[in-house]
Amino acid sequence: MAELTESRELTEPGKPEEPGLGERVDAFVREHVMPREDVLDAGGPAADEALRALRDRAREAGLWALPLPAELGGQGLDLAAYARYAEMEGASDHGPAALGSAPLLDVRMLLRHGSAGVRAAYLPRLVAGELRACYAMTEPESPGTDPFLTATTAVRGADGDWVVSGRKWFTSGAAGADLVTVLARTDGAPSDRHGLSLFVVPTRSPGFRVVRELPVLGASGQWEIAFDEVRVPGDHLVGERGAGLSVAAERLQLGRTLRSLRWLGQAQRAFGLLARRAATRGGARGPLHSHQLVQQHVFESLLALRTTRPLVHEAVARLAAGEDAHVEVGLAKVAAARTLQQVVDAAIQVHGAAGLGPDTPLPALLRTGRAARILDGPDELHVTSVARRVLTAYA
Ligand SMILES: Cc1cc2nc3c(=O)[nH]c(=O)nc-3n(C[C@H](O)[C@H](O)[C@H](O)COP(=O)(O)OP(=O)(O)OC[C@H]3O[C@@H](n4cnc5c(N)ncnc54)[C@H](O)[C@@H]3O)c2cc1C
To answer: Residues in domain Acyl-CoA dehydrogenase/oxidase N-terminal (predicted)?
Structure first.
């Protein structure tokens, strides 16, 4: 199995914390999650049922919630230890949800910035997989790259509750979510650099509405949502009033790094498919792997993978050490997104029409790779932000 060998060799440079854990995560994703991807991609009740069954199986296998805090029911791996498993989990888009690591961003954010009431009410249930959360920052009418223009508002009433009004879109997983964290303006006017705050809102609150689904290149999972004067308890403010963007930035740094690890896992998977096809497909002019132009696809893809992996792990190391990681995370995010797109594209090319058809995961991987260059901030944002930061040292 060329795909497995290459994946293990590259993702386990040192000894895993628990012997064999890497093999078990890898095997779980390949044997149980990947075969259910079509059902999970389609969404709806069948996908919910498939996800439930996978989660039960992950709990039985002792693989549930590896990076979530042990005191809340997770397995307590820190970021540095979890990184190598994140790549394996992420080889399927559905791995993190199936293995219970998907709530990591929400749990970390609420642990650090949630009120005591919010932490007690939601954290154990998020880790147990009884509650699902989503994150709503991007809006239809204002550029996601410029959150200062956020139009959603939250107004504080005399009783201390907040009333949230506005519209968000491309909110991943909103339709099945129990909680939504929303960025809203609490002070000032659109374009002011201050005055934005985060709230965690139960989706059962009157006035919360799922407006429509927004399929991305045919795949489900993204939603437009509306807040029509949704009343939110005062203690559901996340962080200080007006500190929404700094909490969001902290969350995004970790989120981009986790995504980069997962995209590496998917690029590695595509590389395995590319290599196997090249190694096994024959033709009148000899086997596919004997053509130099096919060998070039193999070389360029491997080069992309092996130059991107250290960048991503550098971002992990800096974040884990609590150091400023803006440059490293920006480099890692752009490189991982590009690598995923490049390797999947090469794998499709080497498969010919079969690479675009229904018999391989390549179309779904291509979709993820394309979206990767936009979500969590488009390439251009990271390119300019990294360049500006680096240039200040030379001014
Ligand atoms: C699959 C998917 C899932 C998503 N999930 C979520 C989610 O769960 N929650 C959430 O809040 N959002 C989510 N998003 C939204 C995503 O974060 C935004 O799409 C992204 O931040 C860009 O914002 P925008 O779409 O408004 O693009 P805009 O801000 O309108 O930018 C459009 C384009 O303009 C160009 N551009 C913008 N700024 C610059 C610049 N400074 N320099 C040069 N060019 C520039 C870029 O080419 C950019 O792609 C998701 C998006 C996708 C595709």
So the answer is: 20-130
